[in-house]
Amino acid sequence: MKMAKASEADLNMAMKLSNYLDAIERGQMPDDLSEDAEEIEWLDERDCDQYAKLLDGLRRLLNQGSISRVIWGMAVVCDPANKCLDPDADTIEHHPELVKAAEQRDELLVVAQSLIDRWDTPLWKDVPATAEYINALRAVVAKVKP
Q: How many domains does the chain have?
């Protein structure tokens, strides 16, 4: 499954939204919507003006990015079928197949570079068939090197 990648604006908005929701959960007006930044403004369920201000602030915040791209993008990354993340890890870790592929790539690059280096000796320089393989190997190494 493919999903549009979250932009920096999307991620910033999502983090700010998370802070807003944490404040609301604590019964507080989010800091940048509060009348007085020096004191905690407690939410009053009977204060319609305060709730209108809160909703307006949330709408303005949500217009700064796409929470859907953040959430659904992470869902795609976490989907075991996509093999991006290690399904057995509790933290965000590369999938074991990706780790293994990177290790194998590095091992192959070492061997390939060793063959290329040996090619530059007088013994192999005049062997036409070997030159063709070494040139192909040089091209692959140049393309694959991280």
A: 2
Q: Are residues 23 and 68 in the same domain?
A: yes
Whole-model pTM? 0.68
Note the Cα 68 to chain centre separation in Å: 15
My answer on whether 71 and 103 are in the same domain is no
CA 94, distance to chain mean position in Å, is 11
- Predicted confidence pLDDT, tens digits, the chain (146 residues): 778 899 999 999 999 999 999 999 999 999 888 887 678 999 999 999 999 999 999 999 999 999 999 999 999 999 999 999 999 999 999 999 999 999 998 888 888 888 777 776 666 666 666 777 778 888 888 888 77
Domain that holds residue 39: 8-82
